[in-house]
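Review session, final week

We close the course with one last complete record, chosen because it touches almost every idea we covered. It is Zinc/manganese transport system ATP-binding protein, a protein from Aminobacter aganoensis with 277 residues. Go through it on your own first, then we will talk.
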Amino acid sequence: MTDACLTFKDLTLGYNSHPAVHHLNGSIRTGSLTAVVGANGSGKSTLMKGIVGVLKPMAGSCTLAPGKRIAYLPQQSELDRSFPSRVVDLVSLGLWPRRGLLGRYTKEDREAVGHALMAVGLEGFEKRPIDTLSGGQLQRALFARVLVQDADIILLDEPFNAVDAKTVGDLIRLIKRWHGENRTVMVVAHDLELVRAHFPDTLLLARQPIAWGETIETLRPENLLRARRFDEAWHDDAPWCEPEPGHAHAHGHDDHHHHEHGEVHGHPDHESGPRAA
């Protein structure tokens, strides 16, 4: 498909020879807004790290369309809040891709940081140490850092964890703003009601794609039940697996052309995977 910004071909990702995401095939359409859901340990964060290049594929590939820039926001738990830094310093890190580590910030850069802080409701917080921020305030600052990156593709890993309801609402509005600007946004989320209300597309993972497509179809009860069964049957020392010919089942969803792989070898559940539509 010609409007794909990310393409997965039999992508398998993992740690210490143990795969955590198996045989992902399909594409992310430019300008789409996609939630990535699944139980803890289902491969959601692993997929994000594979897309951004922090984690190299064990097999297959993840291809980024030429000229596309990615902004990645990891989980708060992966950040060192003890590092002596101010809010303005944290947000300014978003300028590194364009200015370099030792680049000189321009007047326009400082204005961009100021506008980003206003957009997330943190004006006046510029000189606050980040270790004095609440969880919601820190997430707002991190969203401001993403804003100044001005990226084409935005990856957000669990951005709604440990934040208050007002902050969640404000962050959802920012995500919808990016979507309205035809940026491609992928968000790891746990709250399925939030996903149903705000995300047009969803990828349901249980270490392999269970369903992928329009959210209302992906989150059907039978798909959620199958994902739970797969999660319960998996274990951390899962063996390496290879797809057998004829077991990759494709389904169409508008112009997304996503694909599913419905079987993991050595898995107690050997039924073919569900279709999302």
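Two points worth writing down before the exam:
Residues 165-180 form the longest helix (16 residues).
The longest strand covers residues 4-15.
Good luck, everyone.
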